[in-house]
Amino acid sequence: MIPGDPVMLTTEFWNQVSRGKLVRPVCKSCKASFFSPQILCPWCQSSNWDFQESSGKGSIYSYTVVHRPPDDEHPSPYIIIDVELEESWRMYSRLIECNPSEVQIGQAVRVSFQEFKGRILPFFKVAEDQLCI
Ligand SMILES: [Zn+2]
Fold first, then answer.
1. How far, in Å, is the centroid of ligand 1 from the Cα of 30?
2. Which of these, 82, 87, 77, lies nearest to 34 by C-alpha position?
3. In angstroms, how far apart are the furthest CA atoms of the chain?
4. Quick one: CATH architecture of 57-126?
5. Residues paired with 65 in a beta bridge
6. Cα separation, 129 vs 126, whole angstroms
7. CA of 44 to the centre of ligand 1 (A)
8. 128/17 Cα distance (integer angstroms)
9. pLDDT score of 129
10. pLDDT of 111-123, one tens digit each?
11. Which of 69, 91, 121, 132 sits a CA distance of 20 to 30 A from 109?
12. Contact 17, 45 (CB under 8 A)
């Protein structure tokens, strides 16, 4: 890794996403998971970390509904979620196949890899045992 090069910091994340795996940085010093990938662990400032696979299971920490999409390829409206994964790290993503009036904080979600604009992205769906739509 070249310090300060943001492409190198996220390359492994995107390579794994293209293979259908969700990964996050895990610090080898303090064992904390964090996101997004960065040079130093935000908890102990160690540079000794590597990517580990996530279960892709989590819950909605927060969300917002976007009513004015940036282009015609986005549905309108669509849901942006701040998802808390079960390994105690959070990321932003899109919640798909859910009516915006049905989304709730704390709802269980699962990662769902979808092609969007020619690229595989880690979106999320509401877990099967939770009501949505
Ligand atoms: Zn650490």
1. 4
2. 87
3. 45
4. Beta Barrel (2.40)
5. 79
6. 8
7. 4
8. 22
9. 73
10. 999 999 999 999 9
11. 69
12. no
- CATH 2.40.50 domain residues, the chain: 57-126
pLDDT by residue (tens digit) across 71-124? 999 999 999 999 999 999 999 999 999 999 999 999 999 999 999 999 999 999
Residue 119 CB neighbours (<10 A): 10
Residues of the chain above pLDDT 70, percent:
92
Q: What is the pLDDT of residue 8?
A: 82
HSE value, Cβ hemisphere, 13 Å, CA-based, for 30: 12
Residue 31 to residues 42, 51, 111, Cα–Cα distance (Å) = 12, 12, 23
Whole-number Å distance, alpha carbon 39 to ligand 1 midpoint, is: 11
